Structures are given as structure tokens and as C-alpha cells.
Amino acid sequence: MASAGRVSESGAFMMPIGPVFSGSAESAHFLLETVGEDIIRMIPRFFYKYRGVEKTAEGLPADRALLLAERFSGTSAFAHSLAFCHAVEEIWGIEAPRRAVVLRVILAELERFRHHVAAMEGICNSTGLVVAASQAGILEEDILRLSCKFAGHRYLFGLNIPGGLQRDFSDTECMELGRGIQEIFVKLQDLEKRLRYSSSFLDRLEEVGTVSLEDAVDYGLVGPVARASGISGDLRTCLSYGDYGSFEFSVPVEREGDGYARLRILFQEAKQSNSIISQAVSSIPVGGILQPPPPGAKPSGAALGWAEAPLGAAFHWVRLKENGRVARYRLTTPSFTNWHGFHLSTEGFAFQDFPIILATFGLSNAECDR
Amino acid sequence: MKKTTCKNTTMKKLSEDLPPGCHGPVTVTGAAGRLSCRMESDAADIPPICNYLISKQGYRFASIVIEEMPEEWLAHYIFYGDSSQGPVSISARVNKADNLLPSISHLIHAADWHEREAEDLFGLVFHGHPRLGEFVLHEEWPEGTNPMKKDFDATVSYIHKEAGPGWHPPGE
Amino acid sequence: MSGWVLKGLKTGIRTTPYPKVEEHAPGVSPGRPEGGVPAGDKKPADFACPVDAITVRDDRVSVDYNKCIHCARCLPPAGAILVKPAGGYEWAYKIQRDAVDPGGVEKTCRRSLHIRVVDGGACNACLSEVSQITKPYYDIHRLGFFITPAPRAADLLLLAGPVTEHMKLPLKKAFEAMPGPKVVMAVGTCALSGGIFGPGFASGGGVAGFLPVDIAVPGCPPPPLAIIHGLLLAAGRKDPDPTTSPGPGCRRDAQ
Is domain C32-85 classified as CATH 3.30.70? Predict the structure, then answer.
């Protein structure tokens, strides 16, 4: 068996990509072993963005460590802060009020919607379909502006706090958000319809970057990537949290596992997010939005908090001391899980497909490296 | 965290009905909150129990959490399934002097990177892991640096080795 | 294929008129807490900013924007010692220049600037905002700014993220590969002060100690218009605001 440092076939060429590459891509290194156009092996190297979040969190008070949980991955900030809050709330034995729970669902789905539209823009860009990429870019900025108008921050930073939310939203604001998202969704449906009839675009995605069901199960892939390959797991249903049990939504699953399947999953999940938001904004319970932690010495202990981040299952394991400070914080992120299986999708495909496959996965290095 | 009786009906019987390859003992306790079950066993029993959870009970692997205690390492392996049962964790303790845990990556490929990360950041050795070596910390770091250990001071910056621009992945 | 062309034409022009005209659309900027006389009845001395961005002197509160991470804990209802005025996005500023002209980018690249974006460990929010500037709403191409994948063709190095240890060498090589005249623009609070991550064992306290920074764009993340403002400053097409001082933690190394 060939050593990882040498080419395995005669005539093969090791092509290093990164960590600084492309326009504004994240820092990661990919070593592609290519014979002509075909990639026969792909060896990635990550942790260029390792900031030691788990170590930095140790000794911090829980609400300060929450800032780390929120900001280590800016594009899934709300989901990770939610998972962290779940863990801390369980340790402290407090429950966020029902109003806060439903508002959290709205914000989490808003983030998922934006993330998926950004991923679609990335896919259209990578295939060179510039008009579609511009259309998706317009929708992404619309969602960012809507988020800013609603929540005060384009990426939903500064909202979650253990025990609930830092600020409340009026029912009128929520209804307006629901209407705004519905308008954007209608335009997204138009985009989806046009893409479905763009054969040159589909040619670049169909049967490219395939991950089989067996491989996906073996590598424990999560999120839209796993659902495109046939794994139906979604933490919102299999480990139901928040108030997701009271909303009607489905988890889309495809079988092909190729780039087009991953794109279809993104569109279908965006549709489900829109549906959850419209159901939620019309039925927000009245009441407070914050359950403060117990005064004085807080319960110590360890708990697992989780949330379905836009990219998949995120698990935050937290151990707190009596003084409310973090003793141990373990982050398991969907990108970490999925980058592990990324090489499966590139091996056997053309070198020119590499950026397209990278875009269809839509993974985050900041989330993986922490 | 207050311990309660185990809510997980399947795991409850595990301590009497050990999975094949297990020597026991396996303690099954409940866990407060959302974790449906906590189990503790010897380190040697971790691979058969994990295998049992994945192949016979249909659980999925979530994470490995390593905690440093004064005299030992505590490793929690977390699995999750459908909502009727909630996540389960199986924990093992090893002495710091031994510093060795059995690898489960040959049974559960998803655990591969978790073990490599723990090796790099804690200095633990996972016996049987096919390829350990530079993973999180690149070649600039001095040998034997394990940032997640308690005796590592995270507030100072470290003298790093000069690294060249080229990189060869650690081979066999 | 013509369907796409027609769709594009039907969509029309969405691009902001900035810098010709100020942009007032809601949601273009998250705004940031404004220093001054504290609002509300909470005592500012009792408030602890998680990143020590707030200083209180003689009952006046000032905010160090190089450190502010927009956690909103000083704003109502959570903290209620400051207010957040709506809008406002011209957040970029120039670092004090030495007597020697640092590079002449303003003269040579006034009409066209090529940008090399380097991710020094950013969380992705800053990178996402940087990627928005090429999208239809902002479109820096109309201003003559282009993002290039080759450092050899770049005039400006745009950096986001606290510089992680692992990215120091690639960043240094990207900077050295750029021919003069060149400038460095640090985008985001992490690049200016390390944000909530650094300085620490794995990441630095921003890029200032590592590379000479010419333009700073604070924010967490700075909105696309703030990044464009920074680019306009770099190209000499906007005058720096004389009232904005560089602030601690971000000084240009004497070279």
C-alpha cells in the first residue's frame, strides 16, 4: 500500500491546494493526487484555523464561554449558542420560558434558511452559472438585512443567553419577519425551477461527488450531506428539542448522494424552514423570555447540549463547577464529522470537479477547527 | 448531577446481559436531564460495548469527551439514537501512568478523527489506531505539547519551530 | 440559456449607490454601541464588558471599537448603559502613517485596486461579509476593485481573523509575494485585537504585531459597506475622518 507521502501510481502528480487559495475561501489544505484529470486520492489537512476554543473556555464563567460558543463559527452562531445554552440550562436545572423557546426556533430556522441560500450561491458560483449566483446572492443579502432589521445583527449574534434570550421581539415584528421570509422563499422557488431546467448546470452536479449510503453510515456523516445520501437523521426529530415537536415539518432525504441531491436537499430544507417560521410566528406564547439562573452557588455537573446546526448535528458537552465556571467544554461540530468523509466524494472524479464538490458540501473550516 | 434510575429500557439490562466480548463489570446508572443512560466500565470493555451499541442497537456515534482528573483520564463515549431513548454515554477511566485507551476506530470509523484529536491535544494513546501523528497541531509546535492538559498554560505564547512551506502527510 | 439572460435583465439594478449617495436601506449595518453619557439608570461602573471594550471616565462611557464584539450586553434591555443608533457603517480608519510614504497605493491604485483575501482564522462571519462585496447589492467591480486569487497581482492584503499560529507562515508568504506598493487592511475585531479568542496560545492578538496594518475596519463582523469604506480609504478615494483616532492595540510597526 502506498505511503501517504508518495504517489501511488506512476504518472501521478501531487497537487497541493491551499491554505491560501481561491477568492475568499477559508484556509485549509488539500493534497490531490491526480493522474491526468482524475483525482485518485485526496488528503486534506485542517486545523489551520485552530484557535483552541475548548482550552480558552476553561475557567470562564458560563455566560462568557457562551460568547466563544457563538463566535467560533459565525455562520452557525445561533445554533451553536443554542446547543451550549441547552447544556448549561440542564446543569443549572432551569428551563427557558415557552416564549423564548419558540422565538429560538424562529431564529434557528432563520439562520438555517440564510445558510442554505448562501450554500446555493456557492454552488451556482462554482459551476460558473453567474446569473443564478447573482440571484442567490441577492436573496442572501435580503435575508441578512431582514435578520438585521429583526434581531439587530446580520448573523444573529448576541441573542442567546443561558435561560432564554437577551431581548424580546414583538408579535408584529415576528409577523413581519414571517412575511419577509415568505417573499424571499417565493423568489427562491423561482430560482429552483430555473435551475432544474438548466441542463449545463445539472451536468456539472449530477453523478459528481457521490457519497454512497454505506460510506456515509460508516463515516457517521450528518446534516444535509448525509440526508442526500439516504441517512434520515435530524436532531430536530430524533432528539427533539425546543418546541419542534409542535410544528409540522418533514426532513427531506434523497438517495443519489451526488452534488445535485445535496442541492435538492438544500432547497427542500429551506422550504421546511420557511414553513416552520410561518407556523411559529403566528403562535408565539405570551410570557417572559428569560429564566435567570439560581442565585448564589449554582449546581455543578456535566451535561450534553445539542442542536441541529445548518450543517448537521452539533453536540456541546459542558462541565460546570459550583462557581458557574467551565471545567471542561467539548465541541463536536458537524463540519468536523463531515470533513472526515469529504475525500470519499472527490476520489474518482475529475480535478475540475473539485471546487464544485467543495461547494456542494458547503462545509465550514472554522466550525471544524475551533 | 443527580443520578436517577436509568430511563433507557434497553440499556438497563446491559449490566446483567453483557454484550459479547465484554468481561464486566458494567455499571448502568440513570442520568438527570436529557441523557437517558450513563454507563461505566473498564477501558477494555469499551470496544465491545460500542460495537454492540452501533451494530445491535442502531445507535449512532456522537463524540468522545476526554476529561483530565487528578490521577486518571476519564473518557466518555457518546451515542444517540431515536427520541424515545435519548443519548447514552459509556465512560471508562484509565490511570495517567498507563495513558492508554483501546481504539474503536476499526469498529466505528467515525471515531477515527476524535481519537487522533485526543492524541494530539491530550497525549493519550489509542491502542490499535492505524495512524496517529500530527493532526491538530502542525509541525511548528514543539514535540510533546499537549494544549488540553491542565498543566499547559494557555495564556502564554510558545516558541515554535521554523516550519517549511511543504507538507507531507504522516504516512505509515 | 436565454431564460437566465432575461431573468437577469428583469431583475434590474440592485446595487447600492454608495459612495455617491449614502445607503439608508434597513439592515445594511448592525450599528454599534455609542459612547457618551450613559443611558438608563444602570451604573456603568457596575457593568463589565466581556472583552473590556468599555471604559468609564468621569461618568462618560467610551467604547473601544477595536475590541467590541457586538454582544449587545451593554445595550437595553440586558445592560442598558449605552444606546445603539441605527445605521452608520463608515467604520474604517487609517493607521497613523510614518513620515516616509508607506507605499503609494493611493497614487497608483486610485482607480483600480486588486485585493488578496487571506483568512487568518476568521469565524466565517467576516469572510461572509467580505464575500458579499462581490455580490449584486454591493458589487465592488463597479468601483474598480477586484478580488484576485494571486498575491502576485494584488495591491491590498485583506485579512480577517486573529492570526492563528498555523496561518502565520502562509500569511507571511502571501504578504511577501505581493509586490510593492501594497497595503494591509485588517477586517474585523479579531484582526485588530484578537476578539474573544486571542491573544492566546493558538492565536495572536490580531495582525498588528505581525504585519504592518494600514487600514483597520472594526466590527464583528463589519458590514459590507464598512469593508467598502475601508477599500475606498485605501485607494485614496475617501478622506479619513480626522476625528477617528487609531485606538490602542493597532499601531503600524515602524519599518
Answer: yes
Specify whether the backbone of C239 is left (phi greater than 0), alpha (psi in -120 to 50) or beta: beta
- Select from B56, B51, B99 the least CA-distant residue to B75: B99
Architecture of domain A46-369: Orthogonal Bundle (1.10)
Residues of B in contact with C202 (CB under 8 A): 147
Residue B135 lies in a domain: no
Overall fold of domain C93-234:
Rossmann fold (3.40.50)
Q: Which residues of A touch C84 (CB under 8 A)?
A: 152
CA–CA dist A183, A197 (Å, integer):
22
Query: With an 8 Å Cβ cutoff, are C166 and A49 in contact?
Result: yes
Beta-bridge mates of residue A33: A14, A41
A325 touches chain C (CB under 8 A): no
Chain B residues close to A219, C-beta within 8 Å: 109-110
In this model, does residue C254 exceed pLDDT 60? no
For B137-159, write each residue's pLDDT tens digit: 887 787 778 888 888 877 766 76
Task: Indicate whether B67 belongs to any domain.
Answer: yes
**Testing the interface with A: which of C69, C74, C89, C127 to mutate, by most A Cβ within 10 A?**
C127
Work out the minimum CA distance from B148 to partner chain A, whole angstroms.
6
Complex-level ipTM: 0.91
Say what the pTM is: 0.92
pLDDT of residue C55: 83
Q: Are C113 and C251 in contact (CB under 8 A)?
A: no
For residue A84, the surrounding DSSP H or E stretch is: helix A77-92
Neighbouring chains to B with at least 3 Cβ pairs closer than 8 Å: A, C
